[in-house]
Amino acid sequence: xxxxxxxxxxxxxxxxxxxxxxxxxxxxxxxxxxxxxxxxxxxxxxxxxxxxxxxxxxxxxxxxxxxxxxxxxxxxxxxxxxxxxxxxxxxxxxxxxxxxxxxxxxxxxxxxxxxxxxxxxxxxxxxxxxxxxxxxxxxxxxxxxxxxxxxxxxxxxxxxxxxxxxxxxxxxxxxxxxxxxxxxxxxxxxxxxxxxxxxxxxxxxxxxxxxxxxxxxxxxxxxxxxxxxx
Length: 230
Prior knowledge:
Blueprint: H1 6-22, E1 41-43, H2 62-73, H3 86-95, H4 108-120, H5 122-127, E2 140-151, E3 154-166, E4 169-176, H6 183-208, E5 215-221, E6 226-229
Parallel strand pairs: 1-3, 4-5
Antiparallel strand pairs: 2-3, 3-4, 5-6
């Protein structure tokens, strides 16, 4: 009158059917194409050369002094309109309190006096004066101009100290607090920083589609008060 174990054969068939249904054969993946990346490598122009060994003041607060000087230069649009007040310089320094060595705040009067001596140096004062461009009036000036542009397989990211725009071109100024005591040291410092300035020029050209020949580059050495066009 039938098979009392009929359900055993049904369960066996069901199990075999499910195993066949869920069985997955070997999958061969194609090899990854050469140079494939999940993201672009982000590079700062300053990483394209080692940290400067010429940092000014010849003391342990060298890097902090450079940071402070850059912050103070960013307050200047044109010296024709006046230099920053002592209060403005102190406020800018306080905003960097977490980034600067404590020793820099021990004699802020001296720091301010040193900075005023820097911007009083003839070449630097001329470079920061609108009247210097009398034959080619700037359209605008940007300070601490940040950028992020793609260059080949890299993302070029950084900040340009001072970028002067004209109707037909641009001028990049980069402030350096290097301690250059003689012409040979200056020459070495110029070559040391050249790659960084060229990266800035590349970034401006990529941002604007402007020919590189229309983008001037100048290194501003604050200690000797010397400006070197590249």
